[in-house]
Structures are given as structure tokens and as C-alpha cells.
Amino acid sequence: FNTVEGWIRSGGDKFLAEGRIYNTEGDGPEFSKDNERNSLRMDPVHAENFIGKFKYREITLFWGYEKFRHRYTTLWDVPYEDWAVDWFFYNTLRFSLLIKKKRNWIEGGVRLYYENYDNGGYYEISRDTITYGVFPIKKSSLCGMNGYMKMEGERWGIIGGGVLERLHVRDVRDLYVNLENPEDTVSPFSDTSSIYDYWMDPRTIYTWGVFTEGRLRLGILSLMGGLRADKYGEEKINMVPRAILKIGKRRKFSLKVMYGEAYRNPSMRELYIKSTGIWPQGNEELKDEKITTREVLLYLYPWKNTLFKISLFGNTVRNLIRVENRMYVNSAEEDTIIGAEFALKNIGEKHRLSLNLSHLLKEDSFYPRTMLKCVLNYRPTYTLSISPVFMWVSSRGDEPPFWDVSFSVCKIRGPFTINFKIQNLFNRHAYDPNYRDPDERPIDRGERKFLLRVSYAL
Q1: Contact assessment for residue 14 and residue 39, using Cβ atoms and an 8 Å cutoff
Q2: How far apart (Å, rounded) are the C-alpha atoms in residues 46 and 49?
Q3: What is the pLDDT of residues 415-427, one digit of tens each?
Q4: What is the helix, strand, coil percentage profile of the chain, to 5?
């Protein structure tokens, strides 16, 4: 599995990508819960695309800035018009060092990075983080009779790492806001003051685990499977079994069926809740979560340099929440996404144009139901990539649809890789203040985001 640094940072949450088991080949519908806005607060390294590969050592400097509007309250019985509205600003600065070693059948590496992160809004958060990780891997291969029956891609390894973190939280505005009667505003943190300021004790979160992955190929039939188990902090072991069946050969057709289950202990989310004060009152206790993922992908190659992909993705999330000794079941939340993508590759030898249409088959979903995305990857030279992205998202409830344009540039010059991205360049999302949803917390989409990444590879 390729997201070692992701799950080391977040104790497994990034690996699952908001309920979706990470696909090492990057296939599947574009319409995932994390795609609408890859927040800087999640993992900015994965928020941009870049070309070029590191050799053995890579030094990266990353800076990101995000501005968006957020409307919410922690009181569920407050009318939607009285929910507080404010702008949020996020600044993220990260320095990372990746050392990778490969010799014969062993490959592994160490990743270190320091991150300073600030945001403003209802509360200011300053976070200093040092992350370290190692991921030794052993690979082996076995060929059968004349290569007809082949066992390939088998690998296993031990993964480990940790996070050293210092967190500062300061409540600069009240979470419980009464817009009509400001004098009735209540602070969740103090009976006498609306300002809450504290330094969270420095903490160390460690994680370690093992994994295995293999592939059995028989003619045009390929069966892949794997198992990952990891443990972080003082929490339980997480296990992610996964199986993939592939039929067909490239350039003709390919059918892929994937099934996986993940068992996640949400201690990291509980720590986040405690540290940020999102649930400042009560005795909430998050329990284990089981995620089941099913995915079917059909690839067709009707003409040279063309690809037509049809995907059907579904996941079921079951989790339990205990509040003041009462158990509440967040009953199986099922999402089914059907997507289609048509891509023209190697246009003019170097360019690519893709058109992606995704539809969420869930009437009462909090997320937009239909998304149309057009991506043009223009490469005037082999070291320069320019990618404008146009996206249209349908209405949600009483909210009107919106469209957006993003723009990214990647330049490789010697050992340097420079990537710059502007997201939500022209956001035409019209906000409707009369829209209500008593069961969810509507969040306005980001207004602007700037990402800059500079890598030096040795």
C-alpha cells in the first residue's frame, strides 16, 4: 500500500480517505467525499498533482493558503438563520525530508517533516508537528509453467512511525452565537469569559503495523489481495483486508472488481474533537467503525490513445456513538456512486484531455449529487505541465448549482520540481441563507486556495 506517510500522520484516517479504501492504482470515480475540497488541514502533500519522481532523497518545502466560509452551530435546535457565519483562513508551512533506499529485494525509507499550521475563525489553532516514519518492504516473485501461471507483485513489510505534536487553541469568538440577541451569546468554554486559550500538552502518537500483498495471474485473469494491520497509540489494532479481481488485458478491455473491509478505531478523531472544542460539552465517546467498500470498474479502449471507463462504487459506514452512557447507532450510511470517464491521451504526443461525469445515487445525501469535471493536461515540453480544470456541481437541496475553475503549473528544472496550484479561481456558488437541513451541518465551499510545492531530489 502506497500511503504510508498518510496513515502515519492521521492514524489510519488518511489511508481510508473518508471511508474509501485507498486504491494503489488510483482508479475509480472522481466523485469521492474528499475530492470536493482537499483541505489543507488534511494532508497538503496529496492535495496537488505533480510530475517527476524522486530518486533516493527528496527535500520538499510546501506552503498552502486557504480561505473559505463556514456556517455552523453546536446546538442542534437553533434555527438555521441563527447559525454563525465566519471566514476561515488556513496557512500551512511544511518542510519534509524523504530518504529512500533500494537494493536487491529490500526497499524502504524514512520520512521526516515539520509542519506549522495556523487558522483563524471561531477559534485559532496553531499546530507544530514533527512526523517520522519507516516503511521497509520485501518483494519477491515466482513464475510458473512458461509464465502462463504467474505469481507476481508479492510483497510484505513492517511499517512504523509517529507524530510529535504541540497544539495551541484560542477561542477568539463564541461558538454559540445568537445573531438577534448578541447579549445572550453563551461561551461553551467558560461561564465568565468568551475567550478560551490553552496549550495542549505535547503528545506523541506512534503507529506500527505489518502488511502483505500479492497477485496471482492466470492468462487474462488476475487476482490481487492483501491484508494490513496496524496499531497506534494505546488503541486497538486496525485491519484492512482487500481483494481485487481483474479480467482482460490493457489496450483492449479490463474488468476490475474490488471488495474490502476496514476496521477503524476513531481515537484520532476523538483527540481532534477534544483539542479543537467542536464537541466541548457532554461525555461523547466514539466507538469502533466498520467500513465496507465495493467497487466495479470497466475499462474499454475503443481506439488508439483513448480510454472509456465506467465505475460503480459503494461503501457502507457503521459506527457507534456513546453519549452519557447511552449508545446511539449511526445506522449504516450507504453511498453509491456511478461514474463515467472518457479520456484522450497523447494528443499531439504529450497532452491529455479527460471528461469525467459522476452521480451520487443517494437522494438525501449531504454531498452534491452530480459532478462534471473536465481536465486538460497540456505539456508544451517534457518538463512543463499546465493543467486547467473546469468543474460543475449540481444543486443540493435548495442550494443552486455552482461551477469552478482551477489552474495548476508544474515545472521540472534539473533536480527541482516546482508545483503551483490555484483552486476555486472563479467560484460561482450562490449561497442561499434560507436553506435548512436539520440533520446535517452545511459547509460553504472554499473560496480560494493557493498551493506551492518545491522539491529537490538527489
Answers
A1: no
A2: 7
A3: 777 888 887 655 5
A4: 5, 60, 35
Residue 256: what residue type? K
Q: What are phi and psi of 138, to 5 degrees?
A: -115, 130
Taking the C-alpha atoms of residue 92 and residue 119, their distance in angstroms, rounded to an integer, is 9
Encode pLDDT of 257-300 as tens digits. 877 776 655 544 444 444 444 443 444 455 556 677 787 888 88
- Structural domains in the chain plus CATH codes: 4-457 (2.40.170)
Residue among 390, 388, 391 nearest 409 (CA):
388
Instruction: Give the integer Cα–Cα distance in Å for 189 and 176.
Output: 10
Residue 43: helix, strand or coil by DSSP? coil
What is the CB-side half-sphere exposure of residue 28 using CA atoms within 13 A?
A: 24
Write down the pTM of the prediction.
Answer: 0.59
Quick one: which of 23, 30, 29 has its CA closest to 390? 30
Integer Cα distance of 74 and 343 in angstroms:
44
Q: What is the pLDDT of residues 301-316, one digit of tens each?
A: 888 778 888 888 777 7
Percentage of the chain modeled with pLDDT above 70: 34
Give 191 or 297, the one with higher predicted confidence.
297
Q: What is the DSSP letter of 395?
A: -
Give the 3-state secondary structure of residue 271: helix
Please, are residues 131 and 9 in contact by the beta-carbon 8 Å criterion? Answer: yes
The alpha carbons of the chain give a radius of gyration, in whole angstroms, of: 23
Burial pattern 7-45, b for ≥16 Cβ within 10 A else e, equals bbbbbbbbbbbebbbbbeeebbbbbbbbbbbbbbbbbbb
The set of cell numbers assigned to 331 is 445506522
DSSP class per residue in 72-141: E-S-TTS-GGGSEEEEEEEEEEEEEEEEEEEETTEEEEEEEEEEEEEEESSEEEEEEEEEEEE--EEEEE
Q: What is the DSSP string of 339-364?
A: EEEEEEEEETTTEEEEEEEEEE--TT
Strands 284-300 and 306-323: antiparallel
CA distances from 71 to 74, 80, 200, 273, 445 (A): 11, 9, 26, 18, 10
Specify whether the CB–CB gap between 197 and 170 falls below 8 A. Answer: yes
Reference 15, options 244, 263, 248; nearest CA is 263
CA 424 from centre of chain? 18
Length of the chain as a residue count = 458
Partnered with residue 167 across adjacent β-strands are 127, 200
